[in-house]
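step 4 of 6: structure.
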Amino acid sequence: MTDMSMQPAAGFFSMRGITKVYPMGNEEHTVLRDVDLDIAQGEFISVLGPSGSGKSTMMNIIGCLDTPTYGDYFLRGKPIADQDENELAKIRNREIGFIFQSFQLLQRQNALRNVELPLIYAGMPHKKRLERAEEMLVRVGLQDKLWHFPNQLSGGQQQRVAIARALATHPTILLADEPTGALDQKTGHQVMELFSALNQEGHTIIMITHDINIARFGSRIVRLLDGVLSEGGPDDV
Amino acid sequence: MFRENVKMSWENIFANKMRSFLTVLGIIIGVMAVITLITVMQSATKEVTGQFEALGAGTVSVRAPGTPLKRGLSESDLKEIAALENVSGISPEITTGLSVVYGRSLQEDVSIEGYGFTYFSRNNATVARGRPLLPPDEEQKSLVCVIDRTLSEKLLGGTDPLLKEILINGMRFRIVGILADPESENVMSQFAGANENGKVLMPYTTLMRLLKQDLVGQISVYILDTARADETVEALEAVLKKAFNYKDNSYSVINLESLLDAMNTMLSLMTGLLAGIAAISLLVGGIGIMNMMLVSVTERTNEIGLRKALGARPASIQVQFLLESIMLSFIGGIIGLILGLSASYGLCRLLDIPFSLSLGAIMLGVGFSGAVGIIFGWAPARKASNLNPIDALRSV
């Protein structure tokens, strides 16, 4: 682990010896053990694991919402571990496009305003924001739902708004956490097809899921079990 | 960014209209109470002190019953007082009640008042027709007088009193002037009470001659620079002590200026006290805002987490919530200001005192409400900005 950190990977995405320990009373609970992961630009990688395997923690660390107890994480050559709150906020804004299981749209705002949100924090001027937000909504096929509110949209459409929002700042990676978890199978598949299409366009996607059928949409699958990560192709299940 | 925050805060305030209104109501009542109380109290103070000043700012009233050996101030004492530094003039005052005769009619118990000419030059009495009493009258102890309308009507009936002669104690006096009616507006003159039998004003020297006395029991001393009134009063007292051979209780000095000061102090104390009570309601309003903001932070935990995940810095979350509470209390402040000013205008009309707009009260009300927004919004905004995005996102 130490010798790894001596030679920081200048790669696109690299994790070395990531370990996350939570104190539980007097004991310590290790959620992630010595995880190494490298991802190349343009990959569509599925992190597959059952609940309790450390998936959420993995997602939080990748998304820069949390920092590892030990280990190094480089995103586009930038070390994440020693950044402060404000720097992390900036990285989340510029580098990560979050897609959540429960969509996480602001119910009081229409689709455009929801997609606009990360651009506000990026400091983009108003007019440019609206153009970009519209462009993204057109990309996910919602050109006729720009002014609809989340409660006027179906689940699949809401997740598309969320994907448009994740795309808005042209992030380095799209980070999806069970993106089909709240959708029926058919809609889920449509969303996954959109992911595949986005990947074809060159977007790097990291998807965290427990569902092997969903994971198979990725070009590469890694498995997470009890905090230990192992490589495994889609076909060896 | 700031504009976006204002917009978002505004939307959030309007998303909960009823709750926002009730919260704002606390501030409205607080600001309204502060502004109304201060404005009305200040208007009243202005009115009362104005009347006091009209009565005689810079006037020191001296009563000198004197000692058994010397029952009043002699001519030389008066000269000495008049010569004191910072004294613009003095007016001895002698009052008695005598019968007055004109032709065949007689009026008993008329107030006969002797004054120095300064009494007129200081506008203590205005002459409606004819002339006031002048320095030569005083020097020559002339047998002239000014009478008021009451006496004129009772004694002379319909005839023009000017230059008529009346008889007092067997001496003939020429009427040279008629007093104007005292302004009914002036509370203090009503308090002094108008003599129902009328009055006659004459030079005090003449009245002394009439009464065959050579001492004066009461004088008004007019001070030039009221800021130095205290030293002048001291010097005055030194003269008085000497005049009465340092006997106790031989004289008393009433300084209207110091009376006015005492009253002003009391009134401003009362204003402060009332404003303090009103400020308590503003405090309660502020707690209302804090309560609403805390509820709002809890309700929007998820939204805060999302915003953080999308790249909001802790500071921008804090600013957003702080702006919301400031806007709430500012809206309350503005409405409270308008209502408070209207209420105080109405109250002033009702109490029949001139309404005076107090800039201090306005700034206090608006500044206070803004401060309440910042102070009571700080903790909830801080709480929101410190939320961990992971926990916040999980709260769905």
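step 5 of 6: annotate
 - The interface with chain B takes residues 60, 63, 65-66, 85-86, 89-90, 92-94, 98, 100, 102, 104, 106, 108, 117-118, 120-123, 126, 165, 169 of chain A (CB under 8 Å).
 - Residues 156 and 191 of chain A are 7 Å apart (CA to CA).
step 6 of 6: archive
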